[in-house]
Amino acid sequence: MLTLTTFRSVPSFAAGYVRDLRVRWALEEAGLPYQLRLLAFEEAALPAYRKEQPFSQVPMLQDGELTLFESGAILLHLGERCPLLLPQDAHARAQVTVWMFAALSSVEPYLAELVTLDLFHAGEDWVAGARPSAEAMALKRLRDLDEWLAGRDWLAGEFSAADILMCTVLRLLDGMDLVERFGRLSAYRDRCMERPAFRKALADQLALYAQTSQAA
Amino acid sequence: MLTLTTFRSVPSFAAGYVRDLRVRWALEEAGLPYQLRLLAFEEAALPAYRKEQPFSQVPMLQDGELTLFESGAILLHLGERCPLLLPQDAHARAQVTVWMFAALSSVEPYLAELVTLDLFHAGEDWVAGARPSAEAMALKRLRDLDEWLAGRDWLAGEFSAADILMCTVLRLLDGMDLVERFGRLSAYRDRCMERPAFRKALADQLALYAQTSQAA
Does the distance separating the beta carbons of B65 and A102 come in below 8 Å? Predict the structure, then answer.
């Protein structure tokens, strides 16, 4: 049995955006059943959890004897079971891994920086000075991606784990009206989000946090 | 033949820190010979290059029919040829990929943010406001790593591609006296840098840029 570790409850702005969504989505695409292990925020900081996850983060995935963290590594692992996530042909596989790392290394940090400014530093007096260059960096990456998507439905051939990562990265900017400036890119994000596996994963995460918020 | 694409020349602060170092180092560890394809900065912005590398970045690696970018994906690919970089045993392999993604997703963005502030925004009046929280985030990740390294020589069992990525990530902070606050972590970084393959890779990159700077 596969066991996915995530937080038991999160602040309301994070519901629908917790990174376990990537793993839930991949598991739905692969048709693999899983159970949840729910963690209180405070538990993530304790030595017992930090021995498994040194950054006190979620998600983690337990697959028999194997315990993995980092959503990229988890998706790569699930890809070994499911060629839809990670094709077996060497050429196609290389392109998918390229785009998995691109989503997490070349796009996410720039988008996350904007979210950090707007969400965690809102109102601090230096933010107005920091924001223009951060937004310019994010927009450059969005423009690069929009250009890459000319004539492509997915980042690397068929739909793959790379699209799961990139779509969830783009969703960091929900409500900021930035992705929407790029026609191909926003159509791509919407195409990802129309997949039944995404909808199921999102609904499941939202249902959990609706429940735990009521209980809180 | 393997062909590594990198910049023909770089500003002096970047010599020794261009990300092709990760690939050079991995190639030296694997004992794989390679040739260079040198790119002018201006060429990286041209459509011909952006068809191969949509973010106008280096490094790229050409391996026969395969062309890859993203240093993480390139190291994963080289790992298929070289078990020292990426072990074949499923458990060991999973731990190495976890730490490859951890280096690039959970550590590098926080360290790179500090470098961006100090190097690219030095003197702007908002930086003094932005820096404390950026430094706190970076220090948290360094502390997490230092704790993980208790009783470990390398991140995941034996030396692997994960250590190549993490060491080059830590080197982003060279001269900032932050890694040096953590005994195990700085000893780990030094242990990585003592490897003959690292020394050869670094010497080769420095030699190229010494040469092209003289020519400029």
Answer: no
